[in-house]
TrEMBL record:
NCBIfam families: portal_lambda (TIGR01539)
Pfam families (UniProt xref): Phage_portal_2 (PF05136)
InterPro entries the UniProt entry points to: Phage_lambda_portal (IPR006429)
Species assigned in the record: Limnohabitans lacus
Protein name as catalogued: Phage portal protein
Domain of life: Bacteria
């Protein structure tokens, strides 16, 4: 049985509407305005949002049509824009620096690994060691949005101690047109093949770069299936559904281009102001521009003034300075720095807009982003996979291997803004138990084992040479004299 009872509020409203229709109308309008005000502004339709068109497609659907266009425009901007090139360089130098140290725990393995990673034998192109290839991959990931690293097996007859090399490939090698169901029951999205569980099982790769000038082989333009076990796809996944990466500069590409155009326009305007010093007007037809070789002006040059006749008049040019040009340029560069993920000072080299404290705070935030890239992307996605590849190849050659130590990675040392303050802070932190010596050494780009070995060797040589330094805690903290120190037997 249905309940036909009416809520008291509705009864009140009906009574007001019957007795006082004008008041009821005002209440209704007020209620509608209240409900409208309670909604999200971004969800409303009106004058302010009339030109705001947003799609509800997946990350792959939105990238599908413009992925290569964004990548190509980002590369063009990096090639031709000083600030964009600087942004890529800053990112690469801070993430990789002079190289990320990888020291396997097993000494025999470490010896073979160092010989492979520090030589050209690791590079299929033969142009750089492992650190150089990682730096190339990082900068390409930042600029183009993604990069591929392929494992290349070598024959025993090729003469390599470890029969494996790596090859860094641009994302252009990935066949974006390969999208849709496949005959084997899998499906492709922008060149990546997935099984029924959504696991990437293969990549469809062009043997040569599609834009290579030597594309003389027809097979170069036919993509081939390469198992996922042979490919590292290094990209930043901004959305859960994304299977491809987009340039870090994508959000700022239009601003990079517009600011460059504005600078060019300002430069042309300044040149024109410098060229036109005086404008000559005359009533005589033979004095018109191009008709008189004596008084006419065919070309302009800075500081030019033409000779005039008795009937001619001269109006001097008064260039108008553009207002707030520098402020506008700085505002735009601040926006570019934010969009590129670096600080304004790093992008421009201009330190006048920051004091010591603000610059230090900016670096702290920036270094946090760099550490995220290092430990959340570069190490698990790239370095650990390369280590796994190498261990598989080394095992075939009978190299003794230890456990795969996930703590073997040491990032390059961070440059110090104030070395004395930083050292004192680290000293007090270690003394208070807030940091271990190992942690501090890792920040300096080395390890405790490497430090101990080097320190022991150094102390032994100093003792043999009868040299005492007051940097040793025994002299500075315990108050021992040099003679007493020399009586101490050297470290074996």
């Amino acid at each position: 049985m249905q309940d036909h009872r009416i809520a008291p509020a509705n009864v009140l409203e009906r009574g007001i509407a019957a007795a006082f229709p004008g008041w009821a109308l005002k209440r209704s309008i007020s209620r509608m305005g209240l409900e409208h005000a309670r909604g999200y502004d971004a969800a409303k339709s009106g004058r302010r949002t009339s030109g705001w068109t947003a799609t509800g497609g997946s990350a792959n659907a939105e990238l599908g049509e413009g992925l290569s266009r964004i990548r190509n425009r980002a590369r063009d901007t990096i090639l031709n824009n000083e600030y964009a090139k600087r942004a890529v360089g800053v990112f690469g130098s801070n993430v990789v620096g002079y190289g990320i140290s990888i020291v396997p725990a097993n000494k025999a393995e470490a010896k073979k690994w160092n010989a492979w990673s520090n030589s050209l034998a690791c590079d299929a192109d033969g142009t750089g060691n492992l650190a150089a290839n990682i730096k190339l991959a990082v900068t390409e990931r930042f600029g183009a949005g993604e990069v591929l690293i392929r494992r290349r097996w070598r024959k025993a007859t090729d003469g390599y101690a470890i029969p494996m090399q790596i090859q860094v490939l641009e994302a252009d090698h990935l066949d974006e047109s390969k999208t849709g169901p496949l005959a084997n029951g899998n499906y492709c999205i922008l060149g990546k093949e997935f099984d029924a569980l959504g696991t990437c099982v293969a990549y469809w790769i062009y043997p040569e770069h599609p834009g290579e000038m030597t594309g003389w082989r027809t097979s170069s333009f036919i993509s081939k299936r390469v198992p996922a076990s042979e490919i590292i796809h290094y990209y930043k996944r901004d959305r859960p559904s994304a299977v491809r990466g987009v340039s870090e500069l994508a959000v700022s590409l239009m601003r990079y281009r517009d600011l460059a155009d504005w600078h060019d326009a300002e430069l042309v305007r300044k040149k024109m102001e410098a060229c036109i010093m005086a404008i000559i007007s005359s009533e005589k037809p033979d004095k018109a521009l191009g008709l008189s070789s004596t008084n006419g002006v065919e070309k302009m040059r800075p500081g030019l003034i033409a000779r005039i006749g008795a009937s001619e008049q001269v109006t001097f040019n008064s260039p108008q300075a553009s207002g707030a040009g520098g402020e506008f340029s700085r505002f735009e560069l601040h926006a570019l720095a934010v969009g590129s993920g670096i600080t304004y000072a790093q992008l421009t080299g201009d330190m006048s807009q920051a004091n010591f404290a603000s610059n230090r705070m900016g670096l702290i935030e920036f270094r946090g982003l760099i550490e995220q890239e290092q430990w959340l992307s570069l190490v698990p996605v790239v370095l650990q996979r390369i280590r796994t590849w190498w261990r598989e190849a080394a095992a075939l050659q009978g190299v003794p291997l230890g456990d795969q130590d996930l703590d073997a990675y040491t990032m390059p040392a961070k440059p110090q803004v104030d070395p004395l303050k930083d050292a004192m802070t680290a000293k007090e932190t270690i003394r208070g138990g807030g940091m271990t010596v190992s942690e501090w050494l890792r920040e300096k780009g080395t390890t405790l084992d490497a430090y101990i070995a080097e320190r022991q060797a150094e102390q032994k040589k100093l003792a043999e040479a009868n040299i005492v330094l007051d940097t040793d805690a025994a002299t500075s903290e315990l108050g021992l004299t040099g003679a007493e120190m020399l009586k101490t037997p050297p470290v074996a």
